[in-house]
Amino acid sequence: MQRSEELRWVGKYIPPLKMEGIPKVTGAAKYTIDVKLPGMLIGKVLRSPYPHAKIKRIDTSKAEKLPGVKAVITFKDIPKVKYTSSFRDLPMATSRRLQPPDQYVLTDKARYVGDPVAAVSAVDAETAEEALKLIEVEYEPLPAVFTIDDALKPDAPQIHDHAKGNIAAQVKYPFAAGDVEKAFQEADVVVEDTFMTLRQVGAHLEPQCVTALVEPTGKVKIWSPNQLPFPCRREIAKIFGLPESMVEIITPFVGGSFGTRLSMYNEPIAVALAMKTPGRPVKIEYTKEEDFSNLETRTASRITVKMGFKKDGTLIAMQMKVLTWAGAYAARAYLAGPIALMWGMGHYRCPNRDGECTVVYTNTTPAGAMRGYGNVAASCAVEQVMDEAAEKLGIDPVELRLKNLKRPGDDSNLGPCPIESTYEDECIKIGAERIGWWEKRKLKKAEGPRRRGLGMAAMMHCSGAWPLLIEHSNAIIKFNEDGTVNLIINPAFPGTHIWTTLAQIAAEELGIKPEDVRIVTGSTDVAMFDLGSHASRSTYVTGNAVLEAAREAKWQLLERAAKMLGVTPEELDVKDSRVFLKADPSKGLTVEEVARNTIWNLEGEAQNISGKASWSSKYCSPPTAAYFVEVEVDTETGEVKVLKVVVVVDCGRVINPNAVEGQIHGGIAQGIGYALCEDFVINQKTGAVESNNYNLYRIPTTVDMPKDIEVIFINKPDPKGPFGAKGVGEPALVGIPAAIANAIYDAVGIRIKDFPITPEKILKALKEKQSA
Amino acid sequence: MKKREKTRIRLIVNGEPYEVEVEPHKTLLEVLRDDLNLTGTKGSCGVGECGTCTVLVDGKPMLSCLTLAITVRDRNITTIEGLAKDSKLHILQKIFLEKGAVQCGFCTPSMLLTAKALLDENPNPTRQEVIDYLSGVLCRCTGYVKIVDAVLAAAEEIRRRGSEYAEE
User: Fold this and answer.
1) Which pLDDT belongs to residue A79?
2) Rounded to the nearest 10 degrees, how much is the dihedral formed by the CA atoms of A15, A20, A26, A28?
3) Residue from the list A25, A203, A703 with its beta carbon closest to the beta carbon of B140
4) pTM here?
5) Helix (H, G, I), strand (E, B), or coil: what is residue A411?
């Protein structure tokens, strides 16, 4: 592994590539809502007003007759193929467990308020909306359940025929070990507690928008914000009975993803409409109310954690029971619930462990993925129980964590694969130092209405989900005659400066400038396979494919230059866009001279220098982090102010500190929102989502952010990451809510066990504590 | 498809006059995006909560999703497409990129225009003044830290140079 000072581009604080940055600051960037095509029609979706109802009769004749309407479709017009929004065959490696399909493109039985029952396309939005009103639907309302508890009652209405007792899945922790019951008996201290985690909403600003076009050849083109374009292509192909190659997913700029867009929403509806009007594209843009009410939320679970320790703080037994609140369709909750077990029980060393997860259908908006999914829920429970145990044991929370951390070579949190690198201990030690843990925790709490407290949490995540999923990416690099390259990749468009990061990796290896790496992306037809953007994988998995492709291209470049110079390739190297003799750097050629000579070669030795690589990850390089926060709780109003946040991250070698700091800052904001103010509210009578826009679902603004934020990188290379890098997108947020909860406990001695921790809940708990 | 009454109005956008036929209920956001093809202005919440659709009208931030186009006839409207001049970036645009204040970029047009209005009013704002002025524009990616940093750095650079525009 190169030393940092030997690197020209990796590790440099650089702005985004011009092609990634300039369009966004000038208004030139075209997002999914900006797609405008000749002959384009506008599609709208008719949604069920009932949380649970059979459709007895549906009459579209009046809508069809309205001038300007081009197509009206219902369950009668869509393929009789069940699918799942989160893709039936994600390449699950460990369990080979494929997700059972449980939904149709349009339904004849509504299972939540908002379930799509019909759709129209028309020449403009007003006409499409008018047409929706003309569709006559006769519903037979059925009893509905909105909570886990109601759904599990013996007399609860059955939401799906295939799921008896509304149980979508029941999963045992796959890496159970030892004898848990015996170990609990042998433990000196056993702590058990239960927490309800939050159905956080992605709340990205760009509304969900998809445009679909059926070309005269029958080829289907879809402009979609989906984060997994290739799996999306496969699912669409399966629903509509097409070969994958007849479906192209085009990814424009996307206004925020955060995991919400791991699932499909209006993609299949737009395709079904577009099939009725070949040659005329159909665009479906959701309103923000539709977004908040229908896009998958983060999956919430009720998690019971039991941990047993020896007197010295050694963790010897652990058990987790997870009850997962899925919505009307299992969607990504199917995976997000069970994976919480793996994160929760895979974080610390523990010889005796078991657990189970039950995923429960309810008549609510489908639950799915959001940044750090499963791990935020696990952290909210486990990291609070760790603090409770520390108190009982009389050991400092920092010390208790340090004692039980995993080390390189231990099995990763996602299964039997050794951890390549972890510097979690350093994260914790440095974070404690920076926030003044040892001094401030000892101080006697000040009297008065405003109380301060310190809290922390530690975390281990993943760089791509191997060994849970097959993590497969590809990259192609081709040289242009001017000495620049095209890097052809498809990691979707998460807005994380990933183009720039991957260009830095390619440029470092090729000895050229990042700006000379032109990214070609955004089409499943152009790029080779990439699983997409999830599980903090792009820098690590796609990055390794890019590095391998660059190595191949570099070798071809040196071979050609060697021929031109009459030496061997081994005698050459390339730096600053110049190939030179290692023994005499004054002798050499520019990269452009070599590239030009290969393509415009008049001796007949023409060749286009290129490299391509497939990377299927076989290693576990989990990023780790420690989060420290200081809060002030106003005991008169219940308000919590986050005063200071310190996040210390071990994400391997940082490729671009500018980009990674931005990830951490954004994660802190989303973590504060999760802990304190974001609340997904379902009306318990109607089943409708009440928190259906930014006025009712509050995300943090500039004024909610702490004034004092410190982000520190360990910056030590991982043996398997490209130039030593690990993932970082999700770790940014995972431990923030638990750290805030622990700080509130330190400040006022109460634990709110269901998120978010609102002023009302704090005041109520303070009152109860006083009267106790 | 109904025939609807339209009114002919003049909008001055980024210094250029446009004659457009608009229905009276059309918002400025709709007219900018649909009629003038100026899609740099984005829409999101539709109810004036998120600030994403902010444009400048006579230099002041205004929510284009709540503004009827006919109410701003003949007034000077600045959209993100008008922030750079003669292919030179505004210093705010340049520093937003340098400081990493742009992630997905969807709120960026409204952040930049709101920041420009602030610096036009107050060329030397404190950190708290920047935080307060930008509090009506939501961003889900950045946590705002680098946005506030960038506005302060841009203010300093504009004062130092005596010009709002970056060199080529």
Assistant:
1) 96
2) 180
3) A203
4) 0.97
5) strand
Q: How far apart are CA A420 and CA A413, in angstroms?
A: 12
Supply A771's token pair. 């009267």
Under an 8 A CB cutoff, do B106 and A27 touch?
no
**Contact call for residues A504 and A12 (beta carbons, < 8 A):** yes
Q: What is the mean pLDDT of each run of 10 residues along chain A (772 residues)?
A: 89 96 98 98 98 98 98 97 89 66 97 98 97 98 98 98 96 95 98 98 98 98 97 96 98 97 97 98 98 98 98 98 98 92 97 97 97 97 98 98 98 94 98 97 85 97 93 97 98 91 98 98 98 96 98 98 98 98 97 97 94 96 98 98 98 98 98 98 98 98 97 98 97 96 97 98 96 88
CATH of the structural domain B91-161, one choice from 3.40.640.10, 3.60.110.10, 3.40.50.2000, 1.10.150.120: 1.10.150.120
Residues of A (53-72) whose Cβ lies below 8 Å from B: 66-68
Q: Do A36 and B140 touch (CB under 8 A)?
A: no
Output the CA–CA distances (angstroms, integers) from residue A284 to A96, A268, A714, in the order listed. Answer: 35, 11, 45
The domains of chain A are located at: 4-28+472-616
Strands A640-650 and A624-634: antiparallel
CA separation (Å) from A391 to A172, A432, A644, A740?
Answer: 30, 17, 23, 17
State both tokens at A321.
């029971």
- Per CB-CB distance under 8 Å, the chain A contacts of B148 are 702
Chain B residues in contact with A658 (beta carbon < 8 A)? 99-100
Nearest to B150 by CA among B121, B107, B104, B111: B111
Q: Which residue does chain B place closest to A658, by CA atoms?
A: B100
Q: Is A497 on the interface with B (CB under 8 A)?
A: yes
Nearest CB to B102 within list A24, A36, A665: A24
Domain span(s) for CATH 1.10.150.120 in chain B: 91-161
CB contact at 8 A, A288 and A693: yes
CB contacts, 8 Å: B80 with chain A: 25-27
Tell the CATH topology of A4-28+472-616.
Aldehyde Oxidoreductase; domain 4 (3.30.365)
Q: Which residues of A touch B113 (CB under 8 A)?
A: none
Residues 270-289 of A with CB under 8 A from B: 287-288
CATH tag, B7-82 = 3.10.20.30
ipTM score for this prediction: 0.98
What average pLDDT does range B10-22 have in this prediction? 97
- Give the single-character DSSP code of A676: I
Place of tokens 């600053």: A576
* Nearest chain B Cα distance for residue A124, angstroms: 8
Within chain B, all domains assigned CATH 3.10.20.30 are found at: 7-82
Taking the C-alpha atoms of residue A651 and residue A666, their distance in angstroms, rounded to an integer, is 16
d(CA A392, CA A386): 10
Q: How many Å lie between the alpha carbon of A128 and the closest alpha carbon of chain B?
A: 9
Q: Is A253 within 8 Å of chain B by CB?
A: yes
DSSP assignment of chain B, as one string?
A: ------EEEEEEETTEEEEEEE-TT-BHHHIIIIIS--TTS---SSSSSS-TTEEEETTEEEETTSSBGGGGTTSEEE-GGGTSBTTBPBHHHHHHHHTT--SS-SSHHHHHHHHHHHHHH-SS--HHHHHHHTTTS--SSSTTHHHHHHHHHHHHHHHHHT-SB---
Token pair belonging to A365:
């908006």
C-alpha distance from A709 to closest chain B C-alpha (Å): 9
